[in-house]
Amino acid sequence: MDTVIYKQHIDKIIENIEKARLHVSPHHIVKIVAVSKYSDEEAIKSLYEIGQRAFAENKVQDLKIKSQSLDELPLEWHFIGNLQKNKINQLIATAPSLFQSLDSLELALALQKRLEKNSQNIDALLQINSAKEESKSGATPEMAEDIYVQIKESCPNINLRGVMSIGAYTDRESEIQKSFEITHSIYEHLKDATICSMGMSGDYELAIRCGSNMVRLGSVMFPR
Ligand SMILES: *Cc1c(COP(=O)(O)O)cnc(C)c1O
Questions:
Q1: Predicted confidence (pLDDT) per residue in 65-77, tens digit
Q2: CATH number (domain holding residue 197)
Q3: Which domain holds residue 173?
Q4: If DSSP codes are grouped into helix, strand and coil, which group holds residue 65?
Q5: Ligand 1 atom closest to Cα of 201?
């Protein structure tokens, strides 16, 4: 895509975010994380050149390859995928800025062991399965607060910064909204949490109006 047109396209997204965030409060700041999982290094560079700094991948291998090959750029890398225990070492070797998809106490304990061994820390979000969908991982809304507190208490090398959730998989806006409201209300109950990561290409404006302060945008940021 032509650079001028691409910049206009991104400006339009920023404008949409601006409108949605003002709906919450003039002090409500939203961070855009560009999800580059379907995009190559050239596309990431193009977005970097018009100002984007935070990028996310959902496979450890892709995170490793892309973050290494773009090492000369001052980028911030997030991990947003399912983490299998046998990939923990690989993930922490990439030293991501934020591990957004920590989805259980069991995984947290395994991660803690590894971090301790390496004298390393990681910033993370607890993923919540607020729509209770079988296809998704994450803590149930009922258990989320307990699990969050347990991780804080038993995993000193994991800095929990807040929560992450994927909106309900449906066309019905009221149900998507409900799933965001559930996550946001858990977020508000947590002590010291500062990040509520909700909203993707199809539902980010709604997510922000429900209180999200971090959106994970893939297809809209990388139009084909
Ligand atoms: C792929 C993905 C996104 C981005 O999806 P789009 O609909 O392309 O914006 C956001 N969050 C997670 C966890 C994802 O896996």
A1: 999 999 999 999 9
A2: 3.20.20.10
A3: 3-217
A4: helix
A5: 9
